Automatic annotation (TrEMBL):
Protein name: Probable transcriptional regulatory protein MJA45_04660
Subcellular compartments: Cytoplasm
Signal peptide feature range: none
Native source species: Paenibacillus aurantius
Annotated GO biological process: regulation of DNA-templated transcription
GO CC field: cytosol
Single GO MF descriptor: DNA binding
Keyword terms: Cytoplasm, DNA-binding, Transcription, Transcription regulation
Family statement drawn from the similarity comment of this UniProt entry: Belongs to the TACO1 family. YeeN subfamily.
């Protein structure tokens, strides 16, 4: 399962290179999570997940505070959660999660990104059944055995624990996200290299060089869209 972490690292590296765009998207996500529940992360688990993710992307405190203040105050923007599914070149599959305050804007923009970059939109359910929702949490500075012992002693259920480069990656059911983090924090771990609720492909595909270039352009086009928050896919990029 460890190979799947490569896709998350690839996505994170891409987002790290576009910080202003990342920060804007997190601002919306934090605002929406806070508006749906309490603006206090200890009382709002969805908000807590977003804030934990924001830490791994080094989102400035000023942006987080601004989004929370907006949610506490007079902010009345209404956002909808939307999911789109589609296909890229050579059997590649994608799931796109969006937050939008204008549904009529989002779907045509996503469709255009597919059409202009060798892809096609699918119907609801055409791709999602090939992915599994998962919590993915990464730590550094600990061995695999140490992380495993911490989680066993805390009686936390996980799917898998793997070593990938300098990270120890924990895969768990989405509802175990907080339990895994709390167990690790209680053991003195305060920094996480990744803290994601994501969609992992059940099987991955590799693309020939020309198709990979086209696929990367499709990913860039989708992630450039204002309303798109996350893009998940089943492509394993060739390591340079």
């Amino acid at each position: 399962m460890g190979r799947k972490w490569n896709n998350i690292k690839e996505k994170k590296a891409s987002k790290d290179a576009n910080t202003s765009r990342v920060y804007a998207k997190f601002g919306v996500e934090i605002y929406v999570a806070a508006k749906k529940g309490e603006p206090d992360p200890e009382a709002n688990r969805a908000l807590k997940v977003v804030l934990e993710r924001a830490k791994t992307y080094n989102v400035p405190k000023a942006i987080i505070d601004r989004a929370l203040d907006k949610a506490k105050g007079s902010g009345e923007e209404n956002y909808e959660d939307l999911r789109y599914e589609g296909f890229g070149p050579n059997g590649s599959m994608l799931i796109i999660d969006a937050l939008t305050n204008n549904v009529n804007r989002t779907a045509p923009a996503v469709r255009a990104a597919f059409n202009k970059n060798g892809g096609s939109m699918g119907v609801s359910g055409s791709v999602a059944y090939m992915f599994d929702a998962s919590a993915v949490i990464g730590v550094t500075g600990k061995t695999l055995d140490e992380v495993m012992e911490i989680l066993l002693e805390s009686d936390v259920d996980v799917r898998d624990i793997v070593e990938e480069d300098e990270d120890i990656i924990v895969y768990a059911e989405p509802d175990q996200f907080h339990a895994v983090q709390e167990a690790l924090k209680n053991a003195g771990i305060s920094e996480f290299s990744v803290a994601e609720l994501t969609m992992l492909p059940q099987t991955s595909v590799t693309l020939p060089a020309d198709a990979q270039v086209q696929f990367e352009k499709l990913i860039d086009a989708l992630e450039d869209l204002e309303d798109v928050q996350q893009v998940y896919h089943n492509v394993e990029f060739d390591e340079e």
